[in-house]
Amino acid sequence: MDQLSDQENWDRVQAVANSFGPAGKLLLQSGRVLVGEGKLVKQSRKKQQAKAFFLFNDVLVYGSIVLNGRWHKKLKVTPLEDILLEDLEDGVRMKNQWLIRTPRKSFYVSAASYEEKRAWIEHIEECKGRVTQGGDRRLDFANTWIPDQASAVCMRCSSKFTGTRRRHHCRKCGFLVCGPCSRKRAVIAHIDSTKQLRVCKPCYLSLGVELPELTRQRWDSGGKSDEDELECYSEEEEAEHSLEEEDPSRWMDSWSPYTYINPEHIRPQT
Length: 270
Description:
single chain; about 270 residues; alpha+beta; 5 helices; about 25% strand; globular
């Protein structure tokens, strides 16, 4: 493999940053190296979605695809020391899958082939090892959310979901729950230390902190309630752009394979 100069690496980092528009500026940090990039399928609460992933020497970045290879949105950046990977067997709906766990969010992803899956996992672990020098921190990780289609009934009271009895997610356990079973709100520090999030009754009790329940809704001038605001905060996946493919499997055949640049191949400029 040909070596890259510092300038060539920096041009690659800038290209990724520019593809996210103004939000990408936070990726422009001295010493950052683009290690690998490719497309993965991510399981969201409603469907599987095609995402662009970028592995740097210190962070894992992903975002939604607007124009393939040219424009992305919804930038997500996670330090490698905050990531725990769990290898998984093939599922019914997702092949070549594994679990990415972080304190704020945990989710399933799948690659186009077994070889790409192994490459992603090995390179993430390798870069993480360089950052942590083999010493993992003790972290609380977010639970994965149960997909909406996985249950037609509340996973706490077994009431059937309807047009008026909507599905919600407990932010602590990830279960699908109805509104009456998830009226409580609590701060879950590893997800967000400043906001009270929706939790089911058992999880509220397990937290062991007596926080006031939201018993009265306030409405703003636009007709939006506090309840709506809380939903919008954690369910940003509802707003994914219609330009994204409904069936990510149709993307897989046309995607370029995962690209990897060994950090040791970055040649200092002379």
